[in-house]
Amino acid sequence: xxxxxxxxxxxxxxxLKKSLDNKTILHSYMFIGEEGIGKKMFxxxxxKMVLCENFDGEECDKCKSCIEFSSGNNPDFSxxxxxxxxIKIEQIRQMQAKVIEKPINSSKKIYIIDNADLMTKEAQNCxxxxxxxxPEYIVIILIVSNENKVLTTIKSRCMKIYFEKxxxxxxxxxxxxxxxxxxxxxxxxxxxxxxxxKCLGIKDKIEDYIEIExxxxxxxxxxxxxxxxxxxxxxxxxxxxxxxxxxxxxxYEYAKQNLNNNIKYINSMKIxxxxxxxxxxxxxxxxxxxxxxxxxxxxxxxxxxxx
Length: 307
Fold this sequence. Notes:
The chain has 307 residues and is of the alpha/beta class. It has helices at residues 10-21, 39-51, 64-70, 89-99, 121-132, 152-155, 168-177, 186-192, 196-202, 206-216, 223-228, 231-234, 240-257, 263-280, 285-301, and strands at residues 28-32, 77-80, 109-113, 138-144, 159-162. It is built from 15 helices and five strands. It has a five-stranded parallel beta sheet, sandwiched between helices. Strand 3, helix 5 and strand 4 (138-144) form a beta-alpha-beta unit. Helix 8 packs across helix 13 (240-257), helix 13 packs antiparallel against helix 14 (263-280) and helix 14 (263-280) runs antiparallel to helix 15 (285-301).
């Protein structure tokens, strides 16, 4: 794989490619952006190219370093991720014990710390020691979704690279070409929210989302029609949060299309959020779905929308 095979973020590609071509690789980078927009893919590809023994515009895929990288056995590459919900100081200490060992195949050693914003404060302070005086061969890439959780002293020692969401046209192209999905509407694109990661979570639920669209085509009919069309909600408890988020996407679109009478859709979105809270408090599942459907139906069909 090369950067050309990764969708979007052409500015990031240009920055990283320039540093590779000019051999101006820095000791520490911070890749910043929402989850699922390709930061990890970029970090891995960048690492492979830095470690390639015959790099000439892109990795050769033939040298020992490239072969071992592709098989997940490159001794000059390490990947650190949360142990549970956090990255612990012990993990950083283990990394530091290895940092002092010189690279085996390449001229560099690379450490990727995924979800680096989940490092404990102790772990961050421990990492700071390495960032302040890194060996000349070390490259550390921090992958971050919320940079506000990262100490200022850490951020000041990293080159910050910001990743942007993909355009709807890129997402649509990915769904059609890579996921082989044709029936893509604007609500599906909004649900993806510019994220390949969200696309991957959505692609297996496309038919479910179509069923949810059908529920809302019945909301101007009797409540019995709505209930009969809502089996997808009652029988898929494990996916209910995704479905509720999709319902809010639908309601938001209705609100935009009906600016002179959108309060009922705004109120319906509040009902969705209340349903989420009821589910979190372990309320009876079927009763939560009943609450959702009955209250949205009443809101949409009320002659005089509440203010």
